[in-house]
Every structure is written in C-alpha cells, then in structure tokens.
TrEMBL record:
Pfam family, any one: Fer4_19
Identification of the protein by name: Divergent 4Fe-4S mono-cluster domain-containing protein
Source organism of the structure: Methylomicrobium album BG8
Domain Divergent 4Fe-4S mono-cluster: 2-53
Superkingdom per UniProt: Bacteria
Length: 62
C-alpha cells in the first residue's frame, strides 16, 4: 500500500501521528510515512479518520 500526504490540505490535527507514530512521524522537520510498519487495515483505519482528508491510500498494482 502506498500512502500519500497533501501538505496544503493538512490541518495538523495529529490523528495520524497520534494513532500510528511508527508509520506517520516527523523526522528532521519532515513528515515521513513508513507504510511497512503496520498492516494495511490498520493504516486504512487511520487514514479514514483524517479530518482534513490530506492522507490518502493507493492500492499497489502488483
């Protein structure tokens, strides 16, 4: 699964970072998404809770 983040839409509510800090994190002042650190279902549930809609899931086309 690929997860994207739209900085311009983000309202910084912190739902993603607070819910899944191993996936969504700030490193050296940059927002990082490491989708390998949690199951697709767990990431989907967190992305679906994003209040600004700035996080999106893209299915892998393998």
């Amino acid at each position: 699964m690929c997860v994207t983040w739209d900085q311009d839409k983000c309202c910084h509510a912190g739902v993603c970072v607070g819910s899944l800090p191993e996936v969504f994190k700030i490193e050296d002042g940059r927002f990082v998404i490491d989708a390998e650190k949690a199951s697709e279902e767990t990431i989907k549930n967190t992305v679906d809770r994003c209040s600004s809609g700035c996080c999106n899931r893209l299915a892998n086309n393998n």
